[in-house]
Structure formats: structure tokens, C-alpha cells
From TrEMBL:
Protein family (similarity comment): Belongs to the IRC22 family.
Function: Is probably involved in a pathway contributing to genomic integrity.
The protein's name: Increased recombination centers protein 22
Lineage: Eukaryota, Fungi, Dikarya, Ascomycota, Saccharomycotina
Signal peptide stretch: 1-20
Keyword set, alphabetical order: Endoplasmic reticulum, Membrane, Signal, Transmembrane, Transmembrane helix
Bilayer disposition of the protein: Single-pass type I membrane protein
Compartments where located: Endoplasmic reticulum membrane
A GO CC annotation given for this chain: endoplasmic reticulum membrane
Keyword Transmembrane helix: yes
Length: 192
């Protein structure tokens, strides 16, 4: 019987950033990308993930949201441990989104994302874009939403990189939390 493990790791609350491009060159040093220190391996994986999610933008834009999520199926799980799912089961990401901006109102209008191979950060599946009933977040407001993901993957190790579609001044932007140092990182790992 095939199984998947899924683990969530919450390292620190942080701002979600619109996709941006940064570069690092040395393999054995810590680098700082978007204000977060990470190893070169983490930085390379982060940049590969961002490229897979729609390319890089030249200017760094900020959307001042705090995005956290957990798994509805395992709400009390230690977010640094792996959670087992049988292949074909559904995982439900339970998002909590807080608008930290003191002036701007944002609207969450959809979710999507990608599933990347842990080994080479290759995109192995897309999380189908799902339009949702618009969630309007006034300054300092909090909203929640759920995103179901079918675990129809072969056994292996994967990153799940969900994206929120956020309307900012009538322009829809795809927002991703830093998958290594911000409020949400998801791994799917097969049972050995």
C-alpha cells in the first residue's frame, strides 16, 4: 500500500512577498534573500520555486499580509513532524490571512500553486487555480479559507507551494510565502 507523509513547518511569522528575483553565488555561505537568512541550497531551491511559479519580477513589491496555514486533517500535529496520507487522499490547507497594512485593503480572490520535487525542485504537478468567494481584508482584518489538494502523486518527496491570488488596487497578484523562513512550508514525503 502506498502512503504519503505530509509535514508542515512553521519557523516564524512573516510577510508574504510577491514573487521577486534575487541571486546568490557561493555554495557554502549563508545568504540573505528578501530579508531572510538561508543556506545556499535553500536559496537555490527558493529561487527555482519562484521561477516555476511564474517567473521573476524586476522590482520587489510588498503585500503586507501574514499568511499561515495548517492541515485540517491534523490540526494539532506538531508542524515539524510528518503526517501520513494514503496516496489518493485529500489534504485540506486551512489558511488564516491577516492584513498587516495600516492603510490598504486587499481581497483574496483565488488560490493555486505547484508541487515540486524535493530532489531537483522540478514542477511535477500544478495545484489547479480555484476561484473563491472574494475575501475582503480591511486594514488589520483577518480572514480564513480552505484549499483542498488531492494527493494523487507517486511515492516521493515533494514541496507544496500554494499561492494566494490577491487583488491590490484592482490588480491581481500571486502571493507566496518564503517557503524556507516564513510562516508556512509544506513537505510531502513517501513512506520508505
Amino acid at each position: 500500500m502506498k502512503f504519503l507523509h505530509i509535514g508542515l513547518m512553521t519557523l516564524m511569522a512573516g510577510f508574504s512577498n510577491v514573487l521577486a528575483q534575487e541571486e546568490a553565488n557561493a555554495e557554502d555561505v549563508m545568504v540573505n534573500i528578501e530579508g531572510q537568512d538561508m543556506t545556499m541550497e535553500e536559496a537555490e531551491a527558493y529561487m527555482a520555486a519562484k521561477e516555476k511559479m511564474g517567473g521573476a519580477q524586476q522590482q520587489r513589491e510588498m503585500i503586507n499580509l501574514q499568511v499561515n496555514y495548517d492541515l485540517l486533517e491534523e490540526p494539532f500535529a506538531d508542524l515539524q513532524d510528518f503526517i501520513v496520507f494514503e496516496v489518493g487522499e485529500t489534504a485540506t490547507l486551512n489558511y488564516t490571512i491577516h492584513n498587516l497594512d495600516q492603510e490598504e485593503t486587499y481581497s483574496i480572490v483565488g488560490v493555486s500553486g505547484a508541487v515540486l520535487s524535493e530532489v531537483d525542485q522540478r514542477n511535477v504537478a500544478n495545484l489547479t487555480e480555484t476561484n473563491i468567494t472574494e475575501i475582503v481584508l480591511a486594514p488589520n482584518a483577518t480572514g480564513t479559507l480552505r484549499h483542498k489538494i488531492d494527493m494523487n502523486l507517486t511515492e516521493g518527496r515533494y514541496y507544496i507551494l500554494p499561492l494566494l491570488h490577491v487583488k491590490d488596487k484592482n490588480e491581481v497578484k500571486r502571493v507566496m510565502s518564503n517557503p524556507f523562513k516564513s510562516s508556512s512550508l509544506v513537505y510531502i514525503v513517501s513512506n520508505i
